[in-house]
Amino acid sequence: MGNALKKLGEAELEIMQVVWDSKNPVTSNYILKELQEQRKWQLSTLMTSLARLADKGFIRCERSTGRNLYTSLISENEYKTRASKHFLEKLYNNSIQNMIAALYDNKEIKNSDIEELRKFLDQLEEE
Predict the structure, then answer these.
(1) CA 126, CA 1: separation in Å to the nearest integer?
(2) Rounded to 5, what percent of the chain is helix, strand, coil?
């Protein structure tokens, strides 16, 4: 996939979540069923999104069994790590401190969140 992180749209991310959550290759019908709460899609709509995800290098379609099985080519963790890094670079000048300050100043995070973060950082240092 190279260093350039290809972005996932909201719907694409929902599809990837289904693929990631299932440890085995999945069919398009399985994905459609899993997403029926959020998306009232026709199969053709899903197939278009799956083709786009394959083009972007997120999934592979395996056809050897006579039916299309989709597997992830990038782990959830890898995607989230890259997306977070990209987000920090773009919005907060690559500074977690700037991000926390902005959220705190706008009352988006509470003192309890700060305490939780402090404990987490202490644990990281101890390891």
Answers:
(1) 35
(2) 60, 5, 35
- CATH number assigned to the domain covering 10-72: 1.10.10.10
pTM to 2 decimal places: 0.78
3-state DSSP call for residue 27?
coil
| Domain covering 76-126 in this structure, CATH number | 1.10.4040
Q: Is 16 helix (H, G, I), strand (E, B) or coil?
A: helix
Candidates 84, 88, 106; CA nearest to 96 is: 88
User: What is the block-wise mean pLDDT of the chain (127 residues), using blocks of 10 residues?
Assistant: 69 96 94 92 93 95 89 94 90 89 89 90 90
DSSP 8-state secondary structure symbol assigned to residue 73: S
